[in-house]
Amino acid sequence: MALKNVIIIGAGGHLGPSILSAFRNDPRFNVSVLSRQSSTSTFPEDVKVHRVGDDYPDDEVLSAFKGQDAVVSTIATASAGQQTRLIDLAIKAGVKRFIPSEFGSDTRHPNAMAILPQYFGGKNASVDYLIEKEKDGLTWSSFVTGPFFELAMAGFMGFDIPNRKAIIYNDGEGSWSTTTMPSIGLAVKNSLLEPEKTANRYIYTASFTVKQNDVLKVLEKITNKKFDVDYVDAEAQKVIGIEKVSKGDFSGAMLLIRYINSVNGNGGNYALYHPTDNELLSLPKEDIEEVLTRIVEK
């Protein structure tokens, strides 16, 4: 099953550029982008861009999907519910592989889902729908990557690098799996080079499995500065996060994802119970000090 023609939905977001770059750098693929008319994202001149209405009109999306072998969705979590219709259009267009906008936590972990159903429910529903549609000949792959490491270091996991501050949950010894964005891009691209081995299943990647204390130690070494560290009670942060989310304030979701990753037993360290697919996907071995040095220098 050759998967050569690929279209990316939402290629201008956080993760999309890394996925687009991976495909652009491999001559075995023809990659294009599906972008909403109102989007201000810009793309390289050599990339074909299919502009469609903001509500993804069926006829326009179907036209863009025609001739595509694979659809990679990186649309925002808030729009995950729209993927059901996009999946139907992919089937109608004869697409062979659909990669939903999952990327991140292991949403199938029961504890993670119980903590943040508002955030993970739509993602799970998309995969459930894809499983249902296997009978129509559409295959799928869903990626569990942990937090994108670069975003985790931009405040998501409690580190304020410019101001040399850190918020550490409990004693900082909870371990979590995480993948850099370039490696996620490579993983998505390389999964299409192994279509039979990556079909109809979750794919797990990890650049590192770390603790907040590990990151803090490396950051202090790189910057040659002691960070101002605030140790906080994870359970108290969880309560605050749940209350915020219940009021529609999704800044609470960040606190809850930090909790899932910082407190053992919630699927943050999925390498404990599921082997990664790093080797299958030919992902490079990464050094956390090298990666953090690049982030600090930026």
Radius of gyration: 19 Å
Please tell me what the overall shape is: globular
CATH topology: Rossmann fold
Overall helicity: 25-40%
The tally of strands reads 12
**What is the name of the CATH superfamily?**
NAD(P)-binding Rossmann-like Domain
Q: What is the typical, i.e. mean, pLDDT? A: 94
Termini gap: 41 Å
CATH architecture: 3-Layer(aba) Sandwich
Largest beta sheet: strand ordering? 3-2-1-4-5-6-10
Structural class: alpha/beta
The fraction of residues assigned to DSSP E strands is 15-25%
H/E series, N to C? EHEEHEHEHHEHEEEHEEHEHHH
Separate helix tally: 11
User: Uncertain runs with pLDDT below 50, 5 residues or more?
Assistant: none
Keywords:
single chain; 298 residues; alpha/beta; Rossmann fold; three-stranded mixed beta sheet; 11 helices; 39% helix; globular
Task: Explain what you see.
With 298 residues, this protein is of the alpha/beta class. The chain has a single domain, classed as 3-Layer(aba) Sandwich (Rossmann fold). It contains 11 helices and 12 strands. The strands form 3 sheets. The protein has a 7-stranded parallel sheet with strand order 3-2-1-4-5-6-10, with helices on both faces. It has a 3-stranded mixed sheet with strand order 7-8-12. Strands 9-11 form a two-stranded antiparallel ribbon. A hairpin with a 4-residue loop joins strand 7 and strand 8. Helix 2 crosses helix 3 and helix 9 packs antiparallel against helix 10. It is globular, with a radius of gyration of 19 Å. It starts with a strand and ends with a helix. The model has no long low-confidence stretch (mean pLDDT 94).
